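Appendix B, Record 12. Input sequence as logged:
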Amino acid sequence: MPADVNALLKLPSAQAFDQWLALPGEWVEEPNLRRGGESGVKRVMSSTGKLLYRKQQVGHIYRPLLHPFGYPTAMRERKVLLACAALKVIVPALVYAECRKVDGVWQALLITEALEGFSSLEECYARGDEQLWGEALHLRVLQEVGACLARFNLGRWQHGCLRMKHVFVRVQGTQIEIALLDLEKSRQRLRARTAAVHDIQQLKRHSSWSAAQWQAFIYGYETTFGSSFKGM
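Logged structural output:
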């Protein structure tokens, strides 16, 4: 049964949680055990034909200062998703996010819309899209990746787990859009530069870009961030 999003959003909190959780879906990320609990993602279809992703967690927590005994990581991701709008960083649209305690154990749901028309850089390279783009457009894509990450880091947010599969691209003619995914491990640092250095170094370790391609990324990053990162 497809999700009637408008009807679900009008329900009282407890009832809405149960009904969102009861919606049938297909696992895209099987529940994995970590952080003392489990977390998984299902694909769910809305009644309007829009594809949604439902992250569901039981006992999957982190320990922020305000919740030293633990709080669902999905709620941290909710905070980052909302912050990205002000930073002009494209992320999946947030539909619903809530948590509750049952018998002393945290449960959490995070519902987001699919990014239509986007593919991860990992998928793009696996298909050979860069060959279709040509080197000039490929370098522009990497500049835009740098600019997007810089906007995110300027908010003092650190992605924390940045790989090619977390950077999404939509290329339509000469128009390029970049989005970031999997923000569950993101956290806000005291200084934007601390977040920047961490994410740039992590992306570099997991990329196979040539020197020219890496410089295109750095150019886009530094131009947006407003300062240089020598040695990167």
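The mean pLDDT is 93.
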